[in-house]
Fold this protein.
Amino acid sequence: DAIPKPAVKIQPDWSSSEPWPCTVFGEPVYNKHDDKHNIIRKYSGFMVYYDDQILSPRWTAIKITKEIADKNPDIRRPKRFKTDPELKQKGCNTTTHDDYKNPSGTMVWSRGHMVQFDDARGYGQQAAEDSFYTANVCPQLAALNGQAWLSLEKLCTEYARDYAVVWIYTGPIYSEIKPFAPDRKIPAPTAFYKVVVSPAKEG
């Protein structure tokens, strides 16, 4: 459902170590965009296109450079996710840390970062904390989150080291809108995607 803007042809600054623009060639467009439910949030170092009908981002975007990939390793992960107060102030439906709890006696689901913490913290403490807003997560099977997805995240960061700079887009895919567990309100994605953009020799 996310397609690029065909009219925008902004050549990015491949050499800049600044986080902005964290999208390349313009922002992706969701073809069912609704001003009442969809909002772009610009956090410290990355962006989230939030949809309050699925209570998750449709896409996220972050720019990673070789320097950022290995910066601020001493910043530690917060213990809990938090609700973005600006989304609440704008009247959006939001979620809390506890909305992602597994049914009693199970450990099937995780809170899956779309912009991963390790990448965000390259832009400092605030960006690291911003990555723990629930607007940046989706319900994700724990077996995926801790294995294949984690490996993919590490690979994308490795691309930044290899190519000096990359832009990473991440988000969920839905075949149906159904809560991830009984008595929970957040839909479970069917799959996830990542798009990685890097400069070619010809620009």
In short: The beta strands are 2-3, 29-30, 38-42, 46-51, 56-65, 109-113, 137-141, 165-173, 191-197. The chain has a mean pLDDT of 92.
